[in-house]
Amino acid sequence: MSPQAISGSITVPRGFEAAGVSCGIKNRKRDLALIYSEVPATAAAVYTANQFKAAPLWLTQRHLADGKAQAIVCNSGYANACTGERGKEDALRMAQLIAQELNIPPEMVVVASTGVIGRYLPIRRIEKGIPELASLLGDDDNGAAEAILTTDTVPKKVAVAVELANSTIRIGGIAKGSGMICPNMATMLAFLTTDARIGPELLQRLLRDSVDKSFNMITIDGDTSTNDMAVILANGLSGGAEITEGSGDCVSLAAALDFVTGELAKMIAKDGEGATKLVAISVEGAGSFPEAKQVAFAVANSALVKTALFGQDPNWGRIAAAVGTSGVEVKEEKLAISIGNLMVCNNGVGADFSMRKARQLLSAPEVEITINLNQGRQQARVYTCDLSYDYVKINAKYTT
Amino acid sequence: MSPQAISGSITVPRGFEAAGVSCGIKNRKRDLALIYSEVPATAAAVYTANQFKAAPLWLTQRHLADGKAQAIVCNSGYANACTGERGKEDALRMAQLIAQELNIPPEMVVVASTGVIGRYLPIRRIEKGIPELASLLGDDDNGAAEAILTTDTVPKKVAVAVELANSTIRIGGIAKGSGMICPNMATMLAFLTTDARIGPELLQRLLRDSVDKSFNMITIDGDTSTNDMAVILANGLSGGAEITEGSGDCVSLAAALDFVTGELAKMIAKDGEGATKLVAISVEGAGSFPEAKQVAFAVANSALVKTALFGQDPNWGRIAAAVGTSGVEVKEEKLAISIGNLMVCNNGVGADFSMRKARQLLSAPEVEITINLNQGRQQARVYTCDLSYDYVKINAKYTT
Asked: What are the residues facing A323 on neighbouring strands?
């Protein structure tokens, strides 16, 4: 039975609280978020593949070396990336102030930032905002879900409850996406909580596998941020037994985690900067999964394909051209391309299809493009969005 | 002495004629071009790296196997790519009809096409247009320069005269670019003529080297077309002696050829779809030329960098992030970035610069971004353009 979403997000699992405030980094918008577990939690994280990692990631990697954490603090507005030693000091200061308010060691605090790269944090404003932030901790997850956003238009939240053999656990998550979204830890930020009891190595492996199937399979614009991070805290307060490798409960937990990360990933793709539609690019008939994925990303990152999707234009030749430059060896005469269930290209040449039907399919809020290479049995699916005027508008104006 | 442009293009070298007509592929625009040499010419060409090569490229590769050609025919509007056997027959038909009109063997005809991928050529219209096209051959290069364009806003023409030891030679060229422009034979189409006398192997090497330094160093949108081709015809009518490998004349010819291809490449970048400015991305202090080039292309292809350039926004953090994901190992603390002569990032962190001055530099029609990795002595320069509303507009509407 596949997991079903319930309402709420990070505060659904037992023993978790959250809060979000406006501390003055951004103009009248929430910009500082906190997630807190009543008890120390097992923690795991995966980070951006960008070699210029932001200061908060540098600090968080150190704080999670023991697989334990109890709080996550995150600001939006500035990324605290490309900020040198001062950036590291600012990230540490955030951890120290949160630790002081919550009466926990600074090493139990995960720090994250998102926003403009290359500017120093307005650390005085953050310092001032932290006491209020801590005082607002509670069941309401909306403040935190909003405070981590930048150009996102909607908060991204999901929660599930999972029946294990002898207990029930819950998983919740919030995420932000929108721009600078591409493979290799694509989310920018995802914060996940669960009341399952689990050890740090197994939690790390489950998170890594789940991220590879979700956040690493979406792309908005082919750019990879300096600040991407997905973190999960597991506090064990469900009351159930510890989940061990290879058990039925482990399989259930993994499926539920995949559901949560998959839903958040789709929400990020759908809310890509300026996006008017969610687009699934499925590549079938490939010789291997990496080849299928490589072709899917070549198509999903093509500016020409994405503008055609915005224009509801069944210009499949652009898809074929992107396949042809993907770096994967493909036989032109075997290529087939469908929009939804409408075949537009077969055996490498145009199929006889209804232009009206194709435009109708492309005008839906969710579009599926299937590319069959007909040279193997492996497949991959990548989610992306279209490229619209608003992507240009948003990004031509972002810093100022 | 560096070569100087003179007026005109492909008909400047002795013994070349050209023409362009509207044969009805496009609505009231010129769409069929012809270039003709009075005598058989030495010919060389380089082709797209896209593995789905268009039918005319398949045919041209065969026709140039002997290093000889006498005419080039090119239509715009349809690319004759992803058109299977029928596409090959149509390309051959174009060669045969031109050969018949000009009284030369079909194997002496180079065929090129550009436009929408995946549609069959309206071959009857082309058949009808060819007699008029041949009858219009003459000194005027404007018809041919216009007839090869698609979404380009201006024809791209250049010519030089070069003093060799004992004679003068001329080189002329026309090109089209605009969209689907990226490394590995980026031009979409460039047709070059010269009256120099030269053998096919040396001409091929000079063309390949020159393309690597020019058309392969520009990018508009990261997409590589199925139809890219650069062709040069050398008919030897200058009256000078044959140019041989390693001679002073060979050095002069190579320099002149580099000038012609370099100018055409910059014209293509500047006239990229929706472009408001020409942007040079120079990477210095790299360990090797391929590494410098890789970093430069990562920056030049970043949608976030290109939208910031459109918005005249000195958001150097996006440039840093693109450098960090380029795949080249770079030390963050050594990175320096300048806009024109204004340093905006030094030692990996923001420099103290005037925002007003930065915006002023970014509002110019030509912008130079210099990225110093400070870890070697090699450099590369890539030309690109910004990403504007009009790129989206043009490409959301292209097929219909």
From this structure: none
Kindly report the CATH number assigned to the domain that includes residue A51. 3.60.70.12
Which A-chain residues 7-36 have CB contacts (< 8 A) with chain B?
none
Chain B residues with CB under 8 Å of A320 CB are: 52, 81-82, 117-118, 226
Question: B237 with B303, same domain?
Answer: no
**Any B CB within 8 A of A321 CB:** yes
A92 and A129, same domain (yes or no): yes
Instruction: Specify whether A284 is located in the same domain as A255.
Output: no
Provide the residue range defining the domain that includes A49: 5-270
Give the range among A32-36, A196-200, B381-385 with minimum mean pLDDT: B381-385
Whole-model pTM: value is: 0.82
pLDDT of residue A168: 94
Q: How many domains does chain A have?
A: 2
For residue range B139-175, list pLDDT tens digits in order.
Answer: 999 999 999 998 888 899 999 999 999 999 999 999 9
Whether A83 is catalytic is no
Task: Report the C-alpha gap between B36 and B38 in whole angstroms.
Answer: 7
Q: Taking CB atoms and an 8 Å cut-off, how many pairs form between chains A and B?
A: 227
User: Do B320 and A79 count as a contact with CB atoms less than 8 A apart?
Assistant: no
Q: Which of B42, B60, B150, B187 is catalytic?
A: B187
Q: What is the ipTM of this complex?
A: 0.76
- Closest partner CB to B396 (pick from A311, A322, A395): A311
B87 plus B144 within the same structural domain: yes
Per-residue DSSP letters for A314-376?
--HHHHHHHHHTSSS---GGG-EEEETTEEEEETTEE----HHHHHHHHTSSEEEEEEE--S-
Assign residue A334 the CATH number of its domain.
3.10.20.340
Measure CA B23 to chain center: 25
CB of B225 less than 8 A from some CB of A: yes
Torsion of CA A299, A300, A302, A307, to 10 degrees: 120
